Amino acid sequence: MSSTPVIDVERLNLTYGDFHAVKDLSFQVERGELYALLGTNGAGKTSTLEIIEGHRAATSGTVRVFGKSPRDRGAVRPRMGIMLQESGFSPDLTVRESVRLIGSLTRRTDTVERVLDVVDLTRKAGTKVSQLSGGEKRRLDFATAVYGTPELIFLDEPTTGLDIQSRDDLWDVVDKLREDGSTVVLTTHYLEEAQQRADRIGLMHRGAFHREGTVSELTRMLPAAIRFSLAEPVPALPLQATRGADGKFLIETFDLQKDLSTLLRWAQDHTVELRDLQAGPTRLDDVFRALGSD
Ligand SMILES: Nc1ncnc2c1ncn2[C@@H]1O[C@H](COP(=O)(O)OP(=O)(O)OP(=O)(O)O)[C@@H](O)[C@H]1O
């Protein structure tokens, strides 16, 4: 059984004058998914999101949100919560007034008190926006996405500028929204967040998908890494290794278990200490670095 995707993008193109910013992009986001749109600077993520959010018209291609055109704002907009990189709240309004204003714009039902509590700004309710810290402003931006528990939530670099506790709190709220059935589209430059939380990732580079899939699909095609240091003099190793500028050895392998056990057995037999030993699958950062070298 297949249900209509929440977001359905087919052969989307966007040009700014002569510049082709989004090239034939196609993807779907299913109900309840957390989809991360990642990419290099200028890859076209914001442009793509702006079209899906209904802020910008496509040059060609089709975009459907809940089966409708995102330009049909009356039908689609109340079902979306959008946390932009900068919400542009009026500096003279208080936090409470700002949330009330957001609420009236969303046309969703909620209470200001509940939303302030969810984003942990109750104590700042009477404070003017101009007097908030960077992290508090970011939490106020988050309130725009949370108000009225929308079915579809866009989070554009949501944790930038947040301390660890606030980040964890934000993700707890997102987890709760997902339990309640919300679909989430995320952009972030914190790759570990995407790696931990996304169901699927679209990795954009120069307007197109370089890769798309689950985290394990994206990382599977790169070798795993074993890293360690050795005391001098360095004995002959049982496997091919390279040595980094920091003096650490790196073994890249598509058979981590076998090569790691070979290395450990060799170290045991030769009474060699493998210092700072680390072994693991490729991280998303490495997929990105591979992109940069294309
Ligand atoms: N209004 C515009 N007019 C002309 N070119 C634009 C406009 N907006 C964006 N661009 C260009 O389109 C490309 C894609 O921009 P976009 O902001 O979508 O990228 P992004 O993936 O969100 O980048 P970043 O990670 O740096 O925020 C960039 O090369 C950018 O310079």
UniProtKB/TrEMBL annotation:
All residue ranges annotated as the ABC transporter domain in the record: 7-231
Tagged with keyword Transport: yes
PROSITE patterns: ABC_TRANSPORTER_1 (PS00211), ABC_TRANSPORTER_2 (PS50893)
Subcellular location: Cell membrane
CDD domains tied to this protein: ABC_DR_subfamily_A
GO MF, any single term: ATP binding
UniProt cross-references to Pfam families, sorted A to Z: ABC_tran
Main location: membrane
Topology versus the membrane: Peripheral membrane protein
Claim: Transport is one of the keywords in the record: yes
Keywords: Antibiotic resistance, ATP-binding, Nucleotide-binding, Transport
InterPro entries (UniProt xref): AAA+_ATPase (IPR003593), ABC_transporter-like_ATP-bd (IPR003439), ABC_transporter-like_CS (IPR017871), ABC_transporter_ATP-binding (IPR050763), P-loop_NTPase (IPR027417)
PANTHER family: ABC TRANSPORTER ATP-BINDING PROTEIN
Name of this chain's protein: ABC transporter ATP-binding protein
